Sequence to fold (363 residues):
Amino acid sequence: MSYTAEDTGKSGYDHYMLKEIYEQPNALRQCFAGRADALEGKITLEEVDSIPEPGAVQFVACGTSYHAALYGAAVLREIGIPADAYLASEYALSPPPLTLGTLVIGITQSGETADTLGALREAMSRGASTLALTNVVNSTAARECDHVVYIRAGPEIGVAATKTFSSQLVGCTLLIEQVVDRPRDCRPLIESLRDLPSDVQQVLDSSSAELLVEKYGNSEAYFFIGRGTNVAVALEGALKCKEISYEHAEGFAAGELKHGPLALVTPKTPVFAIVTGNDERARKTLANIKEVQARGAPVIAVTDGQSDAADIADATLMISETHERIAPILANVQLQLFSYHVANALGRPIDKPRNLAKSVTVE
Ligand code: F6R
Fold:
């Protein structure tokens, strides 16, 4: 795929990050294009259609890509495939045991992150089959791994990963559908993937995230909670917020609140609760919302409206109702917008946060 000068310019946006947030409908369309047959209800990634169903999956990644790995591992475990996500820097020095048929998947936007390459090389040296899920064609990870799947998000210039995270989640979903060899109907998932670009566009067109900055932009800290695949979104929401705004932000699994973080919760620490669907996880997260509200914290629900989250929260960032695996992508777009507008109001150098580099090629 080739890109024009316009793809790498700011196209009238104040920052690359904002441009890249707004490019997401198109990036997601490209990631999905030609990879699903809606009539047959089948997803096919030709580049990996010969991989047998793995006995287990180990993801290795850093930063935002690690959050995509957490999402992928959570989805695989729900399907019944043993899967874990590892921080690449930890994996390289103390790799977990490999069982027969383990597939090691490195998620890396750049394909050049030293820690991720180190973890993948460690897995290769122990005989594991490896796969790179990456954005950069012919990157080191793409060249060295046994298999490669491209997320096709296009160039990302802002240091903070935005569109590539969304595309990593779609890439993970497609990859999982390709390698898991069990009879099932993918039609509902395919329909939601097909609608995803317009659902993201709707968030971009109607989000009230910027308005929330007036009310909550001057807080002492920001917390993000979720359960299941939304844990990945909570962690990513916090990472995005802290790296570009320099404000304290922390994300955790909602169930962990009472095991420590609750001590930090005050009326000056807004809590973003990601609540999608209306299952047991959603119900338990509603209980967590009440817990933090009882300590005076304002709660912003990021929700599809299926549960009562919007009724009990102090403010709401709405997303459309979609497949449970796709909802985290939409929720994350709302959090990207909030982080961007907080950082912009504070006058931070959004595209180049201090001390950070786009590609971390040293350990
Ligand atoms: C945060 C961010 C970083 C990267 C991390 C891994 O917004 O972009 O946390 O995700 O440095 O980079 P890649 O994906 O290139 O391996």
Summary: Residues 62-65, 108-110, 113, 116, 160-161, 239, 243, 359-360 surround fructose -6-phosphate (CB under 6 Å). The chain has a mean pLDDT of 95. Residues 16 and 158 are 5 Å apart (CA to CA).
